[in-house]
Design goal:
Chromosome partition protein Smc, 6 strands, 2 domains, Rossmann fold, 199 residues, binds adenosine-5'-triphosphate, 6-stranded antiparallel β-sheet
Amino acid sequence: MFLKSIEIRGFKSFADKTKLDFRKGITAVVGPNGSGKSNISDAVRWVLGEQSARTLRGGKMDDVIFAGTQFRKPVGLAQVSLFLDNSDGGLPIEYSEVVVTRRIYRSGESEYLINNRQCRLKDIVGLFMDTGIGKEGYSLIGQGKIDAILNGKPEDRRALLEEASGIVKYKARKEESEKKLDSTNQNLVRIDDILSTYE
Ligand code: ATP
């Protein structure tokens, strides 16, 4: 699976619809300082569900919407789509091309779509779990991340290895099952209490 292209509209410095195509192998994005190179990786991170405005180098989430310039009015919507080649079935979905989209309006309303169908953030996280592509995945290495990994806590390094080895989805399912068991146990205790009042 690989990222074929990205379409950006109204996101940060990309006021107009801009489509960037990537080929297999290495692609370098070059340009003068402040021309928007990092905004492209921010856009990828954002579609994958980044919830921290700070990680996206902003103060609040709607800072990602094109804020206007001396010559252009601000826009009301930011939208980014990732087009992924899934002909090798790397993503657990039966499509050879997968399009993942995120939108945000000035009202703060946000939407996620997989192949043009609305979905939840949870579905996006689930789609990319254990592929290394999620917002915490190792396929997106920001500036300073290598140092952070090398100098980081063993738990953080372990999280990275777990994602690479593909066990995160099992851990997530285990945690969900434990929560359900916990709530069932609490219900049982409540039923016992009620029953004991009738005895
Ligand atoms: P460098 O090489 O210095 O790291 P860069 O090419 O990576 O630069 P970015 O950091 O991606 O550049 O882009 C910064 C530009 O994006 C700035 O000009 C900033 O004004 C613009 N920008 C960021 N957010 C918005 C926004 N919401 N609306 C309009 N422009 C924005």
